[in-house]
Amino acid sequence: MTSIPDKTELVRLSGVTKRFGGRSPALDAISGSILGGEITGLVGPDGAGKTTMIRLMTGLMLPDSGTVEVLGFDTAQNPAAIQASIGYMPQRFGLYEDLSVQENLNLYADLRGLPKNERTATFDELLTFTDLKRFSDRLAGKLSGGMKQKLGLACALLKKPRLLLLDEPGVGVDPISRRELWKMVENLTREGIGVVWSTAYLDEAEACNAVLLLNQGKLLFSGKPSELTARAEGRVFKVSGMSGRKRQVLAKLLDQEDVIDGAIQGEAIRIVTGNSALPDILPAGDGAAVVPAPPRFEDAFVDLLGGGPGGRSKLAEAQQTLPAKDDRPVIEAKGLTKAFGDFTAADDITFAIRRGEIFGLLGPNGAGKSTTFKMLCGLLKPTAGEGRVAGFDLRRDAASARNQLGYMAQKFSLYGDLSIGQNLDFFAGVYGLSGQRKRARVALMNEIFDFGRHAGQSSKDLPLGLKQRLALACAVMHEPQALFLDEPTSGVDPITRREFWTHINALVEKGVTVLVTTHFMEEAEYCDRISLIYRGRSIALGSPDALKASVVSKDNPDPTMEDAFIALVERSETGAKEAA
Amino acid sequence: MSTSSISGRMRRFAALVRKESYQAMRDPSTTLITFVLPLILLFLFGYGVSLDVTRTRVGLVMEETTPLTQALAASFQASRYFSVTTRQDRRFFEEDLVNGRIRGILVIPAHFTTDYAAGRRPQIQIIVDGSEPNTANFVQNYAQGTVANWERQRQTLIAEEPSAITVEQRFWFNPELTSRYFLVPGSIAIVMTLVGTLLTSLVVAREWERGTMEAMMATPVTAIELLIGKIFPYFVLGLAAMTLCVLLAVFLFGVPFRGSILALYALSATFLIPALGQGLLISAVTKNQFLASQLALISAFLPAFLLSGFLFEINSMPTVIQWVTYIVPARYLIPSLQTVFLAGDIWLMFLHSMAVMLLIGGVFFVLAARSTRKRIG
């Protein structure tokens, strides 16, 4: 094989269109290229067409029109030649769970034709590289998410590929493993390997050398992420020191003509304006200060999509203000513990959430967030400890407690075969609404969320954003005191996420209490307080600003939420070691 | 290019077979379908299900007691088809019949002896439970048969010379007409259908569900290597399950084995080709374990059960259904297997069956290979 100079073009997409069924195309006339020696981010929300694009590059799928050329071969003409020199890690890693780490490596080594005499060295190198040497006899099914990810990568790298395709490698992995994986992949690019990393996380996109930004099958941008981010340069501001309630201030700011986007960031507010003039921060009160802030990829993405929604929430306006009867916490966890056999999924979790507060459980998949959550909804019986919602003890009065809460489950858990109207009717019935009140609430939801045009459609065929609105509508139908949101915005586009949080922010101002789980670091900043959950334990609890401030160091004077998370995990691990 | 070379091909094939064997050994559902399910089936057919009726419980009412009626009652009692309780009054039995404790009431009427002496045909009354037509028919026919037998024997005794012609039935190959003898070989076909079609369709569908198929396809493996590598271990497993069944059939159930081992394996191996082909086709089309198992049960297991001549005589099926049976591979295997067990090697019949099974298998394989091309959507 001849040596490959850096930055050769490895993939060329020309006018690629792919359709499934009669709906709008999954990919619509995409043209672009992917270079060797760098990480190219394939960026977009769920359903944008990322997986389809990767499959087209493997030659496992053919475009309806246009051509895909990989390593100089047309995928339609010569897929075998392409498959001989690419590495591909599909979303679920492509590992055999009932084979051991070594057996998986052997299998892929045979399939990829790695010569016998090179094996010992290659295996050794890869196992060291992925830090899996100690686990080579363990079944792949028994590895943690992060370790599976690394093994998947090792299998894709057995015969050094020229092009490495990774489909959402950052999903379901804790932030520490994610950073390690990124470093490994970065090292590969130094050898001239081209890497495609698909992701819905915009912080990952920001770190790529180049991105192809997809939304609903259309290519919105292709180039260096910094080029896109630069478009928002000078239009991003941070407002701090407000005298009023920050969420009300945000809503007012968003309603201003030239403010196109805004979000809570700890105790401050970040806004993006349509022009570079300093925004009018009158709503923020006298003591408020506004300073320019560095733009992020997400700001530019929102800008590209035409800006976020305004600050009004009709949903909250229709909601009666919940009077504070007393100052007892609305949601309370005291030493909640859940053990499954000898595995403790949640260990002594304690917190209390005040009325009108947004409380976040932040942690990677499998850390114990959902377990804690389910115990507080009365869906799972705790092994020890107690939980209360709106004053009701979940062990004795789970039914009364559940009547006071609205639950939005992870992913889309409504009835896909029912239409929007039928789902609303059903959930209204489940929550005990009837007669005049039921009709009024259903009509209100239809009006607020603008379901009109889609009302008769099966909800499984709805676009993701609409599904998400429907899920929220069903959860708030009965005007609950407390809202439980399980990973509410994972995989949705930033506009939908903004709209969602506008409603939540406004509901909170009316006295609704919110408990939200997320593994999305950005989202944690929208919360008043968060608890970091790692391996079943709460390792830190406090406001986002306080948690970030607690890890400030000379090397990192302005840590991100992810930096804080990683530092606090490391701190808790050394603490545990010292205690032992 | 080395990827198409013979050694590369062999190495990939060996790797796939090795992987599949590890998985099969570690997956409890494989053991369950290959070894436990066949055992359950064999025991069911060996002990539980018997198409022979023996010792049906009936009540016998003797309205008069004479040497003649006692002789008739004795022949009922001696019959191995009935288990008889005798009473003088039919009212004793009415409740038992209603409750299903007995299947019929046989009444030897009060005037039986005088009628018989007068040379009139003796009549006995048979009351049966019509809610179970099969048993009712059986009781009726066998009761009549017993009376006829008794009568004939009596005439032979009375006559100075035995009558010139008697009918003597003789069943070849299965002289006692034990249904177990033909049910057990038949159930071997069912077991191989389970391993070949159900298990294979499940394991391929599982690879699609878990995303491993996609990862495989993006390597230099060819579609044919994938298919053959997938089914080879299950081919071996199918033969292993068959061997287990044969050993049990012969040594535990005492089913005679009159043919050759060669014929047994040749037939079974040939049968596995359509069975595996069908499994592959199902999983390639559905790519979903639940659907695959449903389809395998409906399109392979049930036909092997109902349309193969295993339980129901094909000749007595409606003509249209008879046509359908021609595409059920088990239809060709079951008679041949029964022949291997009960009669011996009849190669002409075997070769014909094998040819047809190969043909059906070929069709399945072509279809499966077409739908498992290395493409996803």
Structural class of chain B: mainly alpha
CATH top level label of the domain at 9-228 in chain A: Alpha Beta
Query: What topology, given as strand order, has the largest sheet of chain B?
Result: 2-1-3-4
Q: Count of DSSP E strands of chain A?
A: 24
Largest sheet features of chain A: 6 strands, mixed
Oligomer: heterodimer
Unreliable spans of chain B are: 161-167
Radius of gyration of chain A: 25 Å
Query: Helix count of chain B, per DSSP?
Result: 14
User: What's the end-to-end separation of chain A, in Å?
Assistant: 53 Å
In percent, how much strand structure appears in the residues of chain B?
5-15%
Largest two-chain interface: A-B, 37 and 31 residues
Q: Note the overall shape of chain B.
A: elongated
Helix content of chain A: 25-40%
Spans of chain A of at least 5 consecutive residues whose pLDDT stays below 50 are 1-5
CATH architecture of the domain at 9-228 in chain A: 3-Layer(aba) Sandwich
Order of helices and strands of chain B: HHEHEHEHEHHHHHHHHH
CATH H-level homologous superfamily name of the domain at 9-228 in chain A: P-loop containing nucleotide triphosphate hydrolases
Let me know the number of strands of chain B: 4
SSE diagram, text form:
The complex is a heterodimer of chains A (580) and B (377).
Chain A (H helix, E strand, L loop, with lengths): L8 E10 L8 E9 L3 E5 L6 H9 L6 E6 L2 E2 L4 H6 L1 E4 L11 H11 L4 H14 L15 H12 L6 E4 L8 H16 L3 E6 L2 H6 L2 E6 L2 E6 L1 H6 L5 E5 L5 H9 L4 E7 L2 E6 L15 E4 L4 H8 L9 H4 L13 E10 L2 E11 L4 E5 L6 H8 L7 E6 L2 E2 L4 H6 L1 E4 L11 H11 L4 H14 L15 H13 L5 E5 L7 H16 L3 E6 L2 H4 L4 E6 L2 E6 L1 H6 L11 H19 L1
Parallel strand pairs in A: 3-8, 3-9, 6-7, 7-8, 17-22, 17-23, 20-21, 21-22
Antiparallel strand pairs in A: 1-2, 1-4, 4-5, 9-10, 11-13, 11-14, 12-13, 15-16, 15-18, 18-19, 23-24
Chain B lengths: L5 H21 L1 H21 L7 E7 L4 H12 L3 E6 L3 H9 L4 E5 L3 H6 L7 E4 L4 H26 L20 H32 L1 H6 L5 H29 L9 H26 L2 H18 L12 H7 L3 H14 L4 H25 L6
Parallel strand pairs in B: 1-2, 1-3
Antiparallel strand pairs in B: 3-4
Helix pairs in contact in B: 1-9, 2-7, 2-9, 3-6, 7-9, 7-10, 7-11, 7-13, 9-10, 10-11, 10-13, 10-14, 13-14
